[in-house]
Write a structure and sequence with these properties.
The protein has helices at residues 4-9, 19-29, 36-44, 50-86, 89-131, 160-184, 188-194. The longest helix has 43 residues, at 89-131. It has 197 residues and is mainly α.
């Protein structure tokens, strides 16, 4: 029989520790920062799926790259701040138009990219309508919210105007090429007559 002293000296049973629960409790009591990626990893690690491990490796690489880029930006900003604090006021004023010009150049590039993206999206949607495909994924994405991967060409009735614009000219050209190629081939009877007997 255990005496009160031996019961007190015995090690406490080791409860099963849930890493997700530990992270949440640490975030609630302020002893840990809330890290969504770590929480997701804790929740999915028990599945032992190599695909999940690969995704986490890629996410970790991306996070490290972003951290390095942020660190470089902070270092550059600190260096610029230190340089501007040590320099005279006219030099800082001279640098401002150059920075403003760079920002305007970047903004113009971003605007051009978005304009091109809008044109490409509109063209893709028109072609999808012409062939009766899903405008979001053309049936190539099983997770598509529009078609669930079933929206390949012919999935729905083609839109007549878009069909005439995009498909009929290509079809007519293909038929003309086929007819031209067929016209160059000798007829079967002609070949037989020309062959020596």
């Amino acid at each position: 029989m255990d005496t009160p002293e031996t019961a007190r000296d015995a090690p406490a049973p080791n409860p099963i520790v849930d890493p997700l629960l530990m992270m949440l409790s640490g975030a609630l009591d302020g002893s840990r920062a809330l890290d969504p990626l770590a929480m997701l990893r804790a929740q999915l690690e028990s599945q032992n799926d190599p695909r999940i491990a690969m995704v986490f490796r890629l996410l970790e690489q991306r996070r490290m790259q972003e951290d390095e880029a942020l660190k470089r930006l902070q270092e550059e900003a600190a260096a610029e701040e230190e340089a501007s604090a040590g320099s005279e006021e006219p030099a800082a004023i001279d640098a401002s138009p150059a920075i403003q010009e760079d920002l305007e150049s970047v903004q113009q590039a971003v605007d051009a990219i978005y304009a091109e993206l809008d044109v490409l999206r509109a063209r893709s949607a028109a072609f999808a309508a012409a062939v009766g495909a899903c405008p979001a994924c053309f049936g190539e994405d099983p997770l598509c919210g529009t078609c669930r991967g079933l929206g390949s060409p012919g999935w729905r009735r083609p839109e007549p105007g878009a069909f005439r614009t995009y498909v009929l000219p290509a079809f007519a050209r293909a038929r003309a090429i086929d007819a031209s190629y067929a016209g160059r081939m000798p007829a079967a009877g002609h070949r037989a007559a020309a062959a020596p007997g």
